[in-house]
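Components:
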Amino acid sequence: MSETIGFLLNDTARLFRRAFNARTRDSGITALQWRLLVYLRRHQGIRQGPLADLIEVEPITLSRMVDRLAEAGLVERRADPTDRRAWLLYLTPRADALLDGMRRTTDALAEEATEGLSDAERAQLIALVGRVRCNLSRRDAIPESEREKEAI
Amino acid sequence: MSETIGFLLNDTARLFRRAFNARTRDSGITALQWRLLVYLRRHQGIRQGPLADLIEVEPITLSRMVDRLAEAGLVERRADPTDRRAWLLYLTPRADALLDGMRRTTDALAEEATEGLSDAERAQLIALVGRVRCNLSRRDAIPESEREKEAI
DNA sequence: TGTTTATAGTAGCAATTGCTATTATATGCA
DNA sequence: TGCATATAATAGCAATTGCTACTATAAACA
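Structure:
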């Protein structure tokens, strides 16, 4: 019974990704790319390394994700004027529009996922899972206030 | 705020997998392989197709996972006497021992993940996430009683 | 029985990911 | 300043995954 929570969370997250991908297939971006764009929207001008940390992929993986998103006209790389090794990342207007357009879909998905739950239960779910995430997080050095939590 | 639950679940599940993989690195199997073995333990003699459904990967992916696990001496393929196209899968004694040995680790991980939660809160967490999973599940045709839920 | 259709599993290919090594640049320090 | 070390990003390679097509076998049915 004790692994249940790990199994359960993984199952549920996978179903979430699957539902997300099924609904946004025509937009041409995946759940992971969407994740990148959402984080980037809140951190315009971030470098690749820190963004890789945020979405928890390897820097090289992020580098290649950005290659594709830049080619698709959704992300722009600008040279960092203070460090010639680094790129600063920006969302293009097109990506903004895309995210806005997807907003309804993702809202509907969240609604569907929590169908039958009262507002209090939804709040409780988020609070409890949030505590589990907090327990599991390795990034203890990063103050909680710095972390992405709500309202994404 | 509405996507929070999707983000949160994915974050948490990822952290879970990461913690799992970090703790079981020396065992040589990944979280996904562990998942396969755990399901297989409860369904000895299952065919590849249904097991692929259970762990939600494509049949070809499962086929190759079984290739590797068979080579590692953890899973055994036996010909189905009633259908010469099919294989029946069995856990080897070695896999049983491996799972038993990992049990302590996974128990400890579940404990750590839910640290600070009361028994009531843990139960509530499981119940709420379980309802979300149920909402998201496409396999509506499969009666709930048939599905893997607890005690894994 | 013989033919059509469905099913179990696998091979080829392409896409994605991460490990390791490498390049270019910046920083620390004598 | 000049050299050693650290850092940002990327290329090469290997592993894994899934899509599509394929083979072998079973089931349905005329």
